[in-house]
Amino acid sequence: MTYKHDSDIVTPYGxxxxxxxxxxxxxxxxxxxxxxxxxxxxxVSHCGAPNRRVEYAMELSKVIGVDIVGKxxxxxxxxxxxxxxxxxxxxxxxxxxxxxxTEKFFNVIRGGRMVPVVMGATKEAYxxxxxxxxxxxxxxxxxxxxSAGLLPQGVGGGSCGVQ
Length: 163
Hints:
By secondary structure, the protein is of the alpha/beta class. The protein has helices at 21-25, 53-60, 103-111, 123-129, and strands at residues 38-43, 66-69, 86-92, 115-119, 136-137.
């Protein structure tokens, strides 16, 4: 019994379910940046993750605005902007494992206010458990123009906790 989708008993942290099979095929177009003034938000309290997610976010902050809130960042909840003002949410897991998707991702899609930028599971796993399209997957590299070559050595790795 694990979060892995090929387990005999799958116990994921969450799953996106469409109301009808037809609604998966309906393309909804919304400008998620309209009226927003801040770029990206990341909430994190577990520092020193094997995939170096905080270092990734800090390097990304050289290209776009990234507010890191919590024990591993420079801001508290009181210092950060309101969630409704951010375009993106960095939903970075602490390990990069094929099926490892936790509440970090599901909470942001449930809120529907920010585009999740994900690190952790494979793009295929996010397609299986989350809405498509509707997220940006790091795939161990930066996504924004002008950010190539900023990725620190060793970022994006980390062993999986469940074998």
